[in-house]
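Lab meeting, item 3. Inverse folding demo.
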């Protein structure tokens, strides 16, 4: 960046349901690796100072979210991306995929067709295919088809220090989440204080990480708990939206309904036979924004019965930035206040 050994970094900023998406356009060094998970390991081990620079204050904030484009390695991928946040690097991000679908169409990264344009997006969890609605050349809503999503555990009892025993479901939708109805803590996801819900979700995340060994058939790098999602408990299909709040990474709160979380939650609902194939359901976030999700076909992920989930949402632009750093600005390298 200006005046130092780090170059200027240009970004496009968007949001999906209020959740930020900072997309790097230029300025990142080359990221080597023969697979996207290898590239993810490389940025974690060698370029993490740039995550601090873009995600943390004074350029970002505690709940900032970002995307780093890299070279694709999978057939059918039009682009490949790494996801970053306040703690590190995720394996899947549905709200970012929705934004990236529109971004790819608007920036001419794919051949545009109407009424729908396909965008293959290689994520650390695998190939996710987005379909962007296009009318008169203008991109609109985006739906994506997930990687195989599955229920890892149902009614798993974990012991939390703050709340005692808690029954959780654990689902995978490109990342692993623990799911708990908020009323187990005397909370309501639509009316309770965000701070109280973050505390409860954090306690569950800590307990699951300490007491449950996760496993993913494709790669051990996928076998980690990304966070905990508190729900309103309304898991049976209904025309009424069901609400949830996702607390992921280091107590980061998703403003959207969480695309990978919706994917995992539908996988759990399908496993419990509470929702059928091709039965759309609306999911409401803390901002009141909605994602629509549905299980579209049954498949497998190793020994796990799985489903492919389709999620629909809408993203909007908020601005463009050129971020700089001056030699000697130690505070400007990035910090966080909670």
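The presenter then showed the designed sequence:
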């Amino acid at each position: 960046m200006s005046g130092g050994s780090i170059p200027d970094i240009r970004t496009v900023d968007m949001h999906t349901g209020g959740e930020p998406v900072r997309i790097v356009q230029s300025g990142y060094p080359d990221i080597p690796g023969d697979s996207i998970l290898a590239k993810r390991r490389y940025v974690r081990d060698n370029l993490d100072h740039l995550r601090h620079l873009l995600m943390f204050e004074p350029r970002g904030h505690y709940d900032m979210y970002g995307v780093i484009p890299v070279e694709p390695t999978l057939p059918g991928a039009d682009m490949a991306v790494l996801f970053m946040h306040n703690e590190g690097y995720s394996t899947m991000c549905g709200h970012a995929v929705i934004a990236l679908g529109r971004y790819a169409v608007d920036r001419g990264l794919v051949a545009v067709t109407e009424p729908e344009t396909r965008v293959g997006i290689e994520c650390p969890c695998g190939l996710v295919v987005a379909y962007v609605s296009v009318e008169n050349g203008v991109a609109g809503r985006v739906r994506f088809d997930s990687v195989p999503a599955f229920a890892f555990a149902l009614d798993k009892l974990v012991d939390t220090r703050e709340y005692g025993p808690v029954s959780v479901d654990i689902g995978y939708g490109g990342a692993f989440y623990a799911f708990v109805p908020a009323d187990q803590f005397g909370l309501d996801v639509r009316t309770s204080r965000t701070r109280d819900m973050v505390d409860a979700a954090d306690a569950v995340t800590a307990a699951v990480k300490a007491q449950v060994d996760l496993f993913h058939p494709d790669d051990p790098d996928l076998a980690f708990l990304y966070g905990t999602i508190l729900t309103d408990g309304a898991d049976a299909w209904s025309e009424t939206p069901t609400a949830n709040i996702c607390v992921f990474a280091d107590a980061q709160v998703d403003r959207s309904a969480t695309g990978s979380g919706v994917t995992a939650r539908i996988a759990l609902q399908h496993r419990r036979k509470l929702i059928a194939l091709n039965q759309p359901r609306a999911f409401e976030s803390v901002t009141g924004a909605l994602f629509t999700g549905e299980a579209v076909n049954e498949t497998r992920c190793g020994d796990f019965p799985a489903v492919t989930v389709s999620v629909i949402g809408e993203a909007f632009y908020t601005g463009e930035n050129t971020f700089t750093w001056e030699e000697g600005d130690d505070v400007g390298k990035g910090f966080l206040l909670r």
